[in-house]
Design brief:
homodimer, 6-stranded antiparallel beta sheet
């Protein structure tokens, strides 16, 4: 799934991604990088609203799992179960959210569990940066459920 | 700050709140209740996108603190430091986020600390419901910093 395909998917199926002004900068099984501009996400302090930053981080995490599971041919429904976001600095410009699966063995276990139990959970870490400086981090727990429809 | 005033403030200063379709249902020092419709917040499973639910919860928490601090005449800059959201059930319709300061002694300590140190932290809990059923919970840590400008 290339950047343009992912962007189109998000715009079509998750309309808030369009209101946020998300652009897909990188989209592969190693990482997904999304960016968003300040203006549609601004708050009354002229910095990025925490809810916008969270939403972009959640999408970056979800998209990475979606792309990985799709590549493995695992048909599923991906559901967010929990996320924790730490806001380290105010974000005063366009920002970037990069998701990774930190631990390769976690991915291996997740896949095995999904194939065996048709249900598995994994954590994804997303780092947010603005002008090259780290500004926030999110950890999200997602559950993949076997879904014959999708 | 009544419901209409808060709604206007959000629409004007945090434009994403308008894209989300937030409506203020209750706005006082005891609690803030915000609601949002499914459509602008929908995802590819026809349920509410987790990032939208998080954003509404963050706004409900922030607004309660804003209203309380304003009533106390404490001029400040309110910053979100951390939030944890647990998604308990899919949200398939209009949803409601209600924020409360659970512990009155925590509010007392927060105020005293703010007056003494010009900086204080407090946690706010937000419960999300859809059609009368609880669907998610958020805990958010906010820091108030003395700000002579605001």
């Amino acid at each position: 799934m290339d950047c343009r395909e992912l962007e189109q998917f998000l715009y079509e199926h998750i309309p808030l991604s369009k209101a946020i002004g998300i652009q897909v900068q990188e989209s592969n099984t190693e990482r997904v990088v999304l960016s968003a501009p300040l203006n549609p996400n601004i708050n009354h302090h002229s910095t990025v609203f925490g809810g916008s930053a969270s939403a972009v981080a959640i999408l970056a995490a979800w998209a990475l799992l979606y792309i990985r599971l799709r590549q493995e041919g695992l048909h599923n429904r991906l559901v967010i179960q929990k996320n924790t976001m730490v806001y380290e600095r105010p974000i005063a410009d366009r920002f970037v959210a990069s998701s990774t699966v930190g631990d390769p063995s976690a991915w291996q276990k997740f896949q095995e569990m999904f194939r065996r139990k048709h249900r598995a959970r994994i954590s994804i870490t997303v780092t947010l940066q603005c002008n090259g400086e780290r500004v926030a981090e999110m950890n999200g727990d997602f559950v993949a459920l076997a879904d014959p429809v999708s």
